[in-house]
Write a structure and sequence with these properties.
The complex is a heterodimer of chains A (about 170) and B (about 650). Chain A is mainly β. Chain A contains two helices and twelve strands; from the N terminus they run ββββββββββββαα. The longest helix of chain A has 6 residues. The C terminus of chain A is likely disordered. Chain B contains 19 helices and 21 strands. Classes of the chains: A mainly beta (about 170), B alpha+beta (about 650).
Chain lengths: ~170, ~650
């Protein structure tokens, strides 16, 4: 992974997954969709258990929750699919990400970000590119390279993230 | 877009020239005396030199010049087209390819090739002059020839000039040239750049007909040429004489001779060169059209508007025709692929010291462009195997009472929506004992395990299997038949091997005509819908309640006195929903194996535009792709090869357990 520059702003789309706020660089995002009919792919890992028809293209639907030890949730009226374009094994691929709720695009100052601590987290630290503080809250910027390469295989829980915030 | 890049255009042209030169050379190895072949190769080399120089490939042009010179001597009968010469020019051609493709090619290597070529030409030249020269010297009686020729109307535009042709004729001997102006139109409709003159030449020369035809070698395809030998007395030209210098060189006419017209049309042809990616784009559009059309069809079916239904039907017909036309556009004859292997056999024969003859059948069989490209590597491997492992040495063959020359037959034919390609050799056949020994050694089977013949042969396709006792330069480099099998399965095809000891082996490949669209059978399992490629569906039967209950222990049904194992897709896909009361079995075939797939419901046939699944789902073996249905939903396409293999394993487990 390239070393992160220490200053500047990150334009990011923020969204919720089970109460936690995540952020993705806005440049990756192609579109935010309402829920679409999903087709399960039997035998695929639950992390990418389904595909959807995105305007005539069949794209995988990724559930980041499973990479962060959260349970898959039943959809609500706020549920959305964030479509990103991402290099998957060298191929530019459209990928849908499940989100409980999508917020606005915000600027995150790199000055308030830090790398994930190696210990004291229940999540795989290499799945997190940066953590940013905002209004006493924490925004997780996931490392999609690592998550996709591991196909979302998370390891066991250690410490709840709430313990870190207090 | 680089479609207009002149260098790219030249490379494409050069590629075709190389292919035709190579074909000519290889044919020449069999028929050294064939003048047409010599001329064709010469013309190819000449054009290559000319175009090369025009596009700034100076090194290529200079190098080609030497080959052309060598072949010019062959053409003039000074040098015999020996196999050594053919070999040398083939070697030079590889160097030329490198130069044309801009690959680094060392000058020293080029010089070495030329030196070899020169040496070969010298020795071949001596051989030829020994035989031919005395005959030439004694027999030089004068002939009188009447040569009538005319050029196509666009000859001048294409750079052909009649004057040098006449000059060359004059070099052959005494000439009387008469211009035939019959076809010249009235002045007011005359197009100054068109040529409609014809020439009538009376030539007295010691040379034969071939020498005269040689003059026209570069234009002979497009022109009309009539050469007749005449007795001296009637040699006087009948037509009115017109001084050539005064004759207008280009005179337009629309009433060309019908013969010339026909030829002209054939030559300029109606072919358009299109970059392959544009075809791919168009195929995508057609795919989307088919999807939109099936949505329309669904809408129309639920409506009572007769006009709407009529339009929907019309669109359906058009979309289907469009799809078929598009597929035809993408088809190329397999000759393109087969042509490459003649060179391979030539090299293989040289390297193994075996005498090998390759014959091809069904070269006109057409296949999707992409499929053809992806077939090249597996076929090279299979042909190498046939030549290296299959065929015996000439001594062994004679000892076995077979003709000395080993035969490899490459054949293609269409069978329904598939093309069957077979590679047949008349060699020693697969040595079953060695296959078994090797498989036991590699731990693929248990020592003494009972296998039927087919199962034994299938072991050859297992990963990590290679029977070559000695690893040769040609095959047995670790990439085995398993790679071939995987590539073929990647094309949704199947591979089969049959072999008779002492008589040879046959490898057959069954390849679908196209990769993009298939006819499929749409089925439902639980809530999911799946497509089974229709080409592999044998029949559909009902799973009776008794069978259903009985088969909890043993999943076999009897189908016309044959036991067919079946797989419950519900189990395989871990479907939660309760099963339908009347489940169906779709019997599918892959290769020689059959397996039944238990589904909840058969929904009907569906034109399936295949879309690849992303990298995330590449590891899920059961599906070869996905498609979009009329209602916008997604159906996964079942990979029959994978399912059949799973069924076989399942069956084997049951047999082992019982």
């Amino acid at each position: 992974m390239n070393p992160e520059p220490l200053t500047g702003l990150i334009e990011a789309l923020t969204f919720d997954l089970q109460g936690e706020t995540f952020a993705l660089e806005a440049g990756l995002v192609r579109e935010v969709l309402d829920l679409l009919p999903e087709t399960d792919v039997p035998g695929a890992p639950p992390f990418v258990g389904a595909v959807i028809n995105f305007r005539g293209r069949i794209i995988p639907l990724v559930d980041l929750r499973l990479a962060f030890d959260m349970r898959a949730a039943t959809p609500t009226i706020d549920s959305r699919i964030v479509v990103i374009e991402y290099d998957l094994d060298g191929q530019p691929t459209l990928i849908g990400l499940r989100a409980d709720k999508v917020h606005e695009v915000t600027s995150i100052d790199r000055a308030v970000t830090e790398a994930a601590p190696r210990v004291g987290m229940r999540w795989r630290s290499d799945f997190i590119r940066l953590l940013a503080r905002r209004n006493g809250d924490l925004i997780v910027i996931p490392d999609l390279d690592q998550i996709f390469a591991a196909r979302g295989q998370s390891t066991g829980a250690v410490t709840p993230i709430n313990a870190l915030q207090s | 877009m680089s479609a207009q890049d002149p260098v790219e255009i030249f490379r494409q042209e050069a590629q075709e020239l190389f292919e035709s030169i190579e074909q000519g050379l290889l044919d020449l190895a069999h028929r050294p005396g064939d003048r047409d072949l010599v001329d064709a190769v010469f013309r190819g080399l000449h054009t290559l030199k000319g175009s090369g120089a025009m596009f700034g490939f100076d090194a290529l042009a200079a190098f080609t010049h030497h080959c052309e010179t060598a072949f010019d001597r062959v053409r003039r009968g000074e040098v015999a087209a020996t196999s050594a010469l053919v070999g040398a020019v083939l070697a030079c051609q590889d160097h030329m390819r490198a130069l044309a493709e801009g690959r680094p090619a060392s000058e020293a290597a080029g010089d070495l090739l030329l030196a070899e070529l020169h040496r070969v030409v010298q020795s071949a030249g001596q051989a030829a002059s020994l035989g031919a020269a005395p005959a030439e010297a004694t027999a030089a009686p004068l002939h009188t020839w009447r040569v009538k020729f005319s050029l196509p109307a666009d000859a001048l535009i294409n750079g052909t000039r009649p004057l040098p042709l006449l000059d060359e004729l004059r070099e052959l001997g005494d000439c009387r040239v008469t211009v035939v102006t019959d076809k010249v139109p009235d002045f007011d409709v005359l197009v100054a750049t068109e040529c409609h003159l014809a020439w009538d030449v009376t030539l007295v020369t010691p040379h034969g007909r071939d020498a005269i035809e040689d003059v026209f070698i570069f234009v002979i395809d497009d022109m009309t040429l009539d050469i007749q030998e005449v007795a001296e007395a009637e040699a006087a030209p009948a037509a009115a004489e017109v001084a050539l210098a005064a004759a207008p060189q280009a005179v337009g006419a629309n009433d060309e001779a019908p013969a010339a017209e026909g030829r002209h049309a054939k030559v300029s042809g109606d072919t358009v060169r299109v970059p392959a990616e544009r075809l791919d784009e168009m195929m995508d559009r057609v795919g989307e059209l088919v999807i939109a059309q099936s949505r329309l069809k669904q809408l129309a079916a639920s409506s009572s508007d007769i006009a709407l239904r009529a339009v929907a039907e019309e669109i359906e017909r058009l979309a289907a025709e469009m799809r078929d036309t598009m597929m035809v556009v993408r088809m190329v004859p397999i000759a393109q692929l087969f042509g490459r292997f003649r060179r391979l056999i030539h090299d293989l024969a040289r390297d193994t010291g075996k005498t090998i003859e390759l014959s091809t059948e069904g070269e006109t069989t057409e296949l999707d462009k992409t499929v053809i490209e992806r077939l090249a590597d597996p076929l090279i491997h299979l042909i190498r195997n046939a030549a290296d492992h299959g065929l015996e040495t000439p001594e062994q063959r004679l000892a076995a009472g077979k003709p000395q020359t080993g035969h490899v037959v490459l054949a293609a034919r269409q069978s329904g929506a598939e093309v069957v390609i077979t590679i047949t050799d008349d060699g020693r056949g697969v040595d079953r004992d060695r296959v078994r020994a090797k498989a036991e050694e590699n731990g693929l089977i248990q020592p003494g395990q009972v296998l039927n013949d087919n199962e034994l042969l299938q072991l050859i396709f297992a990963p990590g299997f290679s029977t070559a006792a000695a690893i040769t330069n040609l095959s047995g480099r670790g990439v085995g038949m398993d790679v071939v099998k995987r590539t073929i399965e990647g094309l949704r095809g199947a591979i089969e091997l049959t072999s008779t000891p002492g008589e040879g082996s046959v490898v057959s490949l069954r390849i679908p005509l196209t990769l993009a669209i298939i006819d499929g059978l749409l089925v439902r399992v639980g809530a999911g819908r799946y497509v089974i490629p229709l080409s592999s569906v044998e029949e559909c039967v009902e799973l009776s309640v008794e069978q259903d209950i009985r088969s909890t222990g043993r999943s076999l049904i009897t189908l016309r006195d044959q036991l067919v194992p079946f797989i419950r897709l519900r189990q395989m896909f871990s479907t939660a929903q309760a099963p339908d009361p009347h489940q169906k079995i779709v019997v599918v075939q892959a290769g020689q194996e059959r397996v039944g797939l238990v589904v909840d419901q058969i929904l009907g046939d569906h034109q399936t535009v295949i879309k690849a699944l992303s990298g995330f789902h590449a590891e899920v073996g059961a599906f070869s792709g996905a498609t979009i249905l009329g209602d916008g939903g997604v159906a996964l396409i079942l990979d029959i090869g994978h399912l059949v293999a799973a069924g076989q394993r399942h069956d084997a487990q049951l047999r082992a357990a019982s």
